[in-house]
């Protein structure tokens, strides 16, 4: 049973609510000293509208079973884009936040208003006078945040790095389980894009189907694969076919995905960013996800199964083809130092020289991810030890087709470069600096130039 709730002092009159969103903050993080106290002043930014996921060690803050019960202890779960992992950040005049769950409508709180380390963090009916429902966000130099209770000053902590780890408040020890990355569930999708999952592009051929991005459209087909995302007042999107101005919609039964009038409620879709840089597209009426069913097949709605066919990216019409490529950031190439063939050799960057130690065989997998095999060593780029932590070494190791820490996804950016993300952790390939010989690690995506790779 929940600990009896404490009487709280009445808060002063609130100003207009501002929906918190921290993607903009991630673009402007400083590299200052690590903040270790909950009393530290929150970072300065103007949050755009939207809801967010909070992720630690590749797992998202979650309401188990999407429960709406007061007193349900929060836990962590595999990032899946579901509403139980969506949190509305409702900023207060003092800079703290209400964290409101997208599924239950309840707020994250310290049960009973406890001041003790180890107290349960659960959900409860939101109360504007309850200080144990308010949280401050303190940015760290690695791009993550400490989330601290306003009432106790203790920090939001996952019990372990395992799926299903329970949440409590604890003294800040700089543990990875106390460091949270914050992703927007409403990414900026301005402009016109192709929409791709697992090497299949969404195509308007009178009905929404998918086809291989490697197959050119017949010039007389009349089909198009250009889409525009139009945000609604309810923070959902309409997915509009260009140039037909029809939308991806649900039929009147809310079971069939089709093209049609953009005015109906079946045309609203919620976009949720995942830690690997892709996103899910959920039907607002049903909560189910837009799912590719392969070459030439109609897209359908399916329950969330964490399938790669439910994870979409926006970008060019063709993926990076299998074959030998170089990866370059800041004019320097991804390299195996000295052409070493030793397992565990940390990768670095070096002046582009055309050598085999800078050549990488891109072997695309059925799910659209890649093995990156060095032409000199025959070893694969991997995250050492399968670590889920920011800062883990990226090295080379004997290739293993069953090892998820050797697989990488490529997310195209608007400037023509790519994010290279670990399938296992969702963190991105990052050079330590712009200097020749900079070592490679995985880090939270901060939109740093050292995380953006051109591929040739």
TrEMBL record:
Residues 1-35 form the signal peptide. CDD domains: beta-trefoil_Ricin-like. Keywords: Lectin, Signal. GO terms for molecular function: carbohydrate binding. Residues 51-183, 321-456 form the Ricin B lectin domain. InterPro entries: Ricin_B-like_lectins (IPR035992), Ricin_B_lectin (IPR000772). Gene3D superfamilies: 2.80.10.50. This is Ricin-type beta-trefoil lectin protein. It comes from Kitasatospora viridis.
């Amino acid at each position: 049973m929940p600990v009896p709730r404490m009487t709280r002092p009445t808060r002063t009159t609130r100003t207009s609510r501002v929906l918190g969103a921290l993607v903009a903050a991630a673009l402007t993080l400083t590299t200052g000293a690590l903040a270790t106290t909950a009393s530290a002043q929150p970072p300065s930014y103007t949050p755009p509208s939207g809801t967010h996921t909070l992720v630690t060690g590749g797992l998202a803050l979650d309401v188990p079973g999407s429960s709406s019960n007061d007193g349900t202890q929060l836990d962590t779960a595999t990032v899946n884009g579901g509403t139980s992992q969506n949190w509305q950040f409702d900023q207060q005049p003092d800079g703290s936040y209400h964290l409101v769950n997208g599924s239950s409508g309840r707020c994250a709180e310290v049960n009973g208003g406890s001041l003790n380390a180890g107290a349960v963090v659960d959900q409860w009916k939101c109360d504007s006078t309850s200080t144990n429902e308010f949280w401050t966000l303190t940015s760290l130099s690695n791009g993550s945040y400490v989330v601290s209770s306003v009432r106790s000053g203790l920090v939001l902590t996952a019990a372990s790095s395992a799926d299903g780890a329970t949440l409590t408040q604890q003294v800040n020890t700089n543990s990875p389980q106390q460091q949270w990355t914050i992703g927007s569930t409403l990414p900026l999708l301005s402009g016109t894009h192709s929409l791709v999952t697992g090497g299949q592009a969404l195509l308007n051929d009178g009905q929404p189907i998918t086809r291989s991005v490697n197959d050119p459209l017949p010039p007389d087909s009349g089909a198009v694969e250009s889409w525009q995302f139009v945000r609604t007042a309810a923070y959902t999107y309409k997915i509009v076919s260009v140039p037909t101005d029809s939308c991806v919609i649900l039929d009147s039964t809310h079971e069939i995905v089709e093209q049609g009038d953009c005015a109906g409620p079946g045309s609203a879709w919620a976009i949720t960013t995942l830690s690997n840089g892709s996103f899910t597209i959920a039907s607002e009426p049903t909560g189910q996800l837009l799912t590719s069913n392969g070459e030439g097949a109609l897209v359908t709605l399916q329950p969330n199964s964490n399938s790669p066919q439910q994870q979409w990216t926006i970008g060019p019409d063709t993926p990076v083809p299998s074959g030998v490529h170089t990866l370059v950031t800041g004019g320097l190439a991804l390299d195996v130092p000295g052409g070493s063939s030793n397992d565990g050799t940390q990768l670095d960057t070096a002046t582009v020289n055309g050598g085999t130690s800078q050549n990488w065989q891109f072997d695309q997998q059925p799910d659209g991810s890649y093995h990156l095999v060095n032409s000199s060593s025959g070893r694969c780029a991997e995250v050492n030890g399968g670590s889920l932590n920011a800062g883990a070494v990226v090295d080379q190791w004997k290739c293993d087709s069953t090892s998820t820490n050797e697989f990488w996804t490529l997310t195209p950016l608007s400037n023509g470069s790519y994010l290279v993300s670990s399938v296992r952790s969702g963190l991105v390939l990052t050079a330590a600096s712009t200097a020749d010989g900079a070592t490679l690690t995985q880090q939270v995506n901060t939109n740093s130039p050292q995380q953006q790779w051109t591929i040739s």
